[in-house]
Write a structure and sequence with these properties.
Length: 171
């Protein structure tokens, strides 16, 4: 890993649901500020890859797009919104990625390798995000097979190290 051991996710061609489940964290929702960060290393360019995502249904997901851009999406029962950066990180090198969410003002900031890359206040469709209490590393808990038939759970393909989550906006 970047600083020792890293979680290695190597989904097969049938996209096995390789994941780490995180429970026992305080609930997170629309007005709860949070920050998430991790070191990632991947060359994946065919599928989206979840870094740290909430449970099935209404959800929060920190992931990489197929072109390697980091993104934070917040889904509710009727739709989703998101913020995506411009820097690609799927070059096979280690990159530090982070997102912070302000809570009450709905402001998201994204960072790559310590540099601020973008911000947005339209991160969900306005109906609120359900309470998230179960989280996954390397996996999105919501089945999106209608939109992503080859990887419905955004299984990550690569390495994730030093993942951190705070229930506050620290960046």
């Amino acid at each position: 890993g970047r600083f020792g051991g890293a979680f290695e996710f190597e989904p097969s061609t049938v996209k096995q649901y390789e994941k780490i489940t995180v429970t026992g964290m305080p609930s997170t929702g629309t007005t709860t500020p949070f920050t998430v960060s991790a070191w990632v290393k991947t060359t994946e360019s065919a599928e989206r890859g979840a870094i740290f995502c909430g449970d099935y249904g209404t959800s929060i997901c920190f992931f990489l797009h197929t072109d390697g851009r980091v993104s934070l999406n917040m889904d509710d029962a009727t739709g989703y919104g998101g913020t995506a950066g411009t820097n690609s990180v799927n070059d096979g090198e280690w990159h530090h990625v982070a997102a912070s969410y302000s809570g009450s003002t709905h402001l998201v900031n994204l960072y790559v390798d310590g540099e601020w890359i973008t911000q947005n206040t339209t991160v969900y469709d306005g109906n609120g995000v359900g309470t998230v209490s179960t989280w996954y590393v390397g996996y999105q808990g919501r089945n999106l097979s209608t939109y992503h038939p080859n990887n419905h759970y955004f299984v990550f393909d690569g390495l994730i190290d030093d993942l951190a989550f705070w229930h506050s906006k620290v960046l």
